[in-house]
């Protein structure tokens, strides 16, 4: 490898850096965790499903932390236990990927139950803020760190035929949170960004891809002539997680095949 190519490759080298990835038991979270480990990071994978986490952690030589992220202040397997467990097993975290998120209702806005609204906000918005607060002192002590929130194009545009008011609000909130944390923590060389994926196959979008009518709708409204996958999102996350994105902070990066450019 030439010196120039070696320098370029180092932009994505995460050797020895400790990373936390939430929502890692499936889909995008699992793909991101695997990619970070491939680049040398020591990865703690976080989700509720212990069996899936254990298998993934063994495969990437990482740490499985079973946790209910909706338990914001509880002991045991609540959110407050994550960072201490990671520090004890791997060391202080330098990378946080907030990939956990879901929809708790598909009711139209006027009918969304209050409990579902609160659960959506707690998991999709409050939990990323609380985890960011938990990793902050460790990143400040290290003198650097990067946080990547996984949002959605639903936080930027309305999607006809898919009711998701509280989900869209929570994802839009992530962009606001990202900008504010980026400004407040920039003096500590902590970067905070958001990646907003378009449509790709996941547990949330699974029903869409089971309908030929729905998949045709997605194809017709996506300028790039391919179906999105989790791997299409991973590259943007890796760019922001490492030194390749060292001068990028406070941004929401849309990865949607051109959906929102129409």
UniProtKB/TrEMBL annotation:
GO biological process, one term: fatty acid elongation
Keyword Oxidoreductase listed: yes
Coiled coil: none
Keyword annotations of the record: Oxidoreductase
GO molecular function, one term: oxidoreductase activity, acting on the CH-OH group of donors, NAD or NADP as acceptor
PROSITE patterns associated with the record: ADH_SHORT
InterPro entries assigned to the protein according to its UniProt record, in alphabetical order: NAD(P)-bd_dom_sf, Sc_DH/Rdtase_CS, SDR_fam
Origin: domain of life: Bacteria
Pfam families per record: adh_short_C2 (PF13561)
Similarity comment: family membership: Belongs to the short-chain dehydrogenases/reductases (SDR) family.
Name of protein: NAD(P)-dependent dehydrogenase (Short-subunit alcohol dehydrogenase family)
